[in-house]
């Protein structure tokens, strides 16, 4: 999974995270399971373009916006052209597919546990 995919994976925890500067660790503490640290690390590896795509998706794409057609209108309003438009669509598609995959996996786990 690429960086956008990992961010999509951790999107489930996005709203419950503290701001990056609002959490602390003890010296030597294992931070491999800290979502803030994971997100900060992944975000630091993103290009400005990837980060812009991720932020646009998080800010604009939700069930209501998709069903009402608002996402398409907002995309048109961005007035992207040529290769930039194609790259933006590719990135948004990757984020969306990852999000759909995660939702399906969560549902599968819930069904297995029920």
Approximate strand percentage: under 5%
Number of helices: 6
Summing up helix and strand content along with how strands pair, one would put the structural category as: mainly alpha
What series of H and E elements makes up the topology?
A: HHHHHH
Number of strands: 0
What's the SSE blueprint?
Elements lengths: L2 H8 L24 H10 L3 H13 L2 H6 L1 H9 L3 H32 L1
Short description:
With 114 residues, the chain is mainly alpha-helical. 68% of the residues lie in helices and 0% in strands.
What does this structure look like?
By secondary structure, the protein is mainly α. It has one domain (3-113). It has 6 helices and no strands. The protein has helices spanning 3-10, 35-44, 48-60, 63-68, 70-78, 82-113. The mean pLDDT is 80.
Tag the structure with descriptive keywords.
single chain; 114 residues; mainly alpha; 6 helices; 68% helix; 0% strand; extended
């Amino acid at each position: 999974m690429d960086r956008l995919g990992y961010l999509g994976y951790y999107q489930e925890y996005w709203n419950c995270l503290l701001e990056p500067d609002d959490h602390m660790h003890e010296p030597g503490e294992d931070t491999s399971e800290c979502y803030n640290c994971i997100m900060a690390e992944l975000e630091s590896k993103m290009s400005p373009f990837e980060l812009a795509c991720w932020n646009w998706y998080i800010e604009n794409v939700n069930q209501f916006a998709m069903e009402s057609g608002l996402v398409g209108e907002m995309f048109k309003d961005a007035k992207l052209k040529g290769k930039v438009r194609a790259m933006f669509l590719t990135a948004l598609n990757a984020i969306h597919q990852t999000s759909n995959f995660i939702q399906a996996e969560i549902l599968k786990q819930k069904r297995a546990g029920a």
